[in-house]
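$ run holo --ligand "3-phosphoglyceric acid" --emit tokens
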Amino acid sequence: MTSTPEQVRSVLSLAPVVPVVVLDSVAHAVPVARALVAGGVPVVELTLRTPVALDAIRAIASSVPEITVGAGTVTSPRQAEAAYDAGAQFLVSPGLTPALLAGMRETGLPFLPGTATVSEVLAALEAGCTELKFFPAEASGGAAYLRSIASVVPTARFCPTGGITAASAPAYLALDNVGCVGGSWLTPADALAAGDWDRVTRLAAAAAALG
Ligand code: 3PG
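-- output --
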């Protein structure tokens, strides 16, 4: 089993902004997913940084079929397999090693490997990956950096993530080598803690309108 760049692109074309969500409570999973869908964002990346992440993916996959749910911060083949087993429909990693690439590929799911330097982009392209996460975007040079490398790696297309806000997203989305951006600003920790799903829907609607 292996996924194609077209399959990755079809996930990344669901919305101009892929919400990156860090959940501390599994009870928030389904309401967050529904709030994003209500705002016009039918895709969500749950980061595997908290103990509830896999259960949250499982809950969303079984209860909110309108959303495409993925796993983020995948850093080992074992995590890739666990995310697949939980029902994740795509995988995102912050970086790339040969073992991680093999583990993500083994799942058959579309996956987005993380890159930050030209050498990492070249390594990913050599491995057959053209759709790449650019991480951490703001700290690595931001939109100006991606514009600078476009002519030397013309086949690479990026989803920048890390430090991006509603204010900085348009500069990335204006680039030819950017398909979408990722960010956690649609699901602020205080909104999740307060159960303020309307606020998430409003932030999602504003992000959807960036497309
Ligand atoms: C990620 O996991 O892609 C980033 O940590 C999300 O970055 P942000 O929280 O700065 O948006």
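-- notes --
The pocket of 3-phosphoglyceric acid is lined by residues 20, 47, 72-73, 135, 161-164, 182-184 (CB under 6 Å).
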